[in-house]
Amino acid sequence: MKAAVLHQYGQELKIENVDLEEPRKGEVRVKMKAAGVCHSDQHVIDLTLPLPVPIILGHEGAGVVDAVGEGVTSVKVGDHVALNWVPSCTKCYYCRTGRPDMCDEAAKISAMGTMLDGTTRFSLNGRKVYQFPLTGTFSEYTVVPESSAIPIREDVPFEYAALVGCCVITGVGAVTNTAKVEPGSTVAVIGSGGVGFNVIQGASLAGAKQIIAIDILDDKLEKTKTFGATHTVNAKEKDPVREVQKLTDGLGVDYAFEVIGRPETMEQAYMMTRKTGQTIVVGVAKPNDKLSINAFSLPFQSKTITGSWLGQGNPAVDYPKLLDLNATGKLQLEPLVSKVYSLDQINVAFEDLKSGKNIRGVIRFE
Hints:
Layout: E1 2-6, E2 14-17, E3 19-20, E4 27-37, H1 39-45, E5 55-56, E6 60-68, E7 80-83, H2 93-96, H3 104-110, E8 122-124, E9 127-131, E10 141-145, E11 149-151, H4 158-161, H5 167-179, E12 186-190, H6 194-205, E13 210-215, H7 218-224, E14 231-234, H8 240-247, E15 253-258, H9 263-271, E16 273-281, H10 297-301, E17 304-307, H11 315-327, E18 337-341, H12 346-355, E19 360-364
Parallel strand pairs: 5-9, 12-13, 12-15, 13-14, 15-16, 16-17, 18-19
Antiparallel strand pairs: 1-2, 1-5, 3-8, 4-6, 4-10, 4-19, 6-7, 7-11, 8-9
Helix pairs in contact: 5-6
């Protein structure tokens, strides 16, 4: 079967004929139907997220259960599923206290690029091939733990369902779970990519009265209005901090979300947050990046700065809820898909991602 394999950091993916083992106990094989092309995959290529190579990337994905291993009870052959790349162990401190997104076991396994038992299911010419934490969606088939295959409703097109696994749950969850944005509040969102657009529509769902989208691309800024942005700022043309303050009568916003992953934009988000407001960092910075915040401002202005990983979500519960919101017209998925590619066009999809051309590019498997 075909898969897109990263052999060396900084290089293009290669379409290879790889081998895939049968699912073992507690595992599920999925015939992939669609996979989103996310900045987190690019982060592996450029070593922002260091994972072992050769590796099959891709973590936003949806497909159909093709086979199940011994003991699997939550899904059966033929079920539609969206994949979860942060499955919780249910036993560690964080899982037991309601924060499965911080699961210790998931974090450990994520750094290994293997299955839960530390072994791999993919191979190429007898050599093991790793997979983006417990998913590896840039492949015609993949094997995942049972907890990574979340059953979903069957009336949602796969290219839309795939996106709930990262950009939708991360963006909407940052608003509803991390910040708990209140109705009538003011919000700024730095970065109009797949996650940023979902922060915007999450803020709109929460009833924010003012949602300020900030980016450097006018076409993307215009599209943010479809998702609920009330104002836009081109940071290439104007100082975003000053513009946000002007739009909020000099106060700053109640909630500022950084969705790029750069220290300078994180600092801007903090600066445009009003006294006693919240700055929420969603973007993933490089491992050695440092953030500089004025120490005096922390007690003096009583702002809160926090991070949000996977929107503090619980995929088994949140995926179905998000798709139900889409079914009722309250959450938009279709406009997130800017372009559909074949697996053979994977490197074109990544070039379009880096250029900011798409909200989200999606690989569709025929």
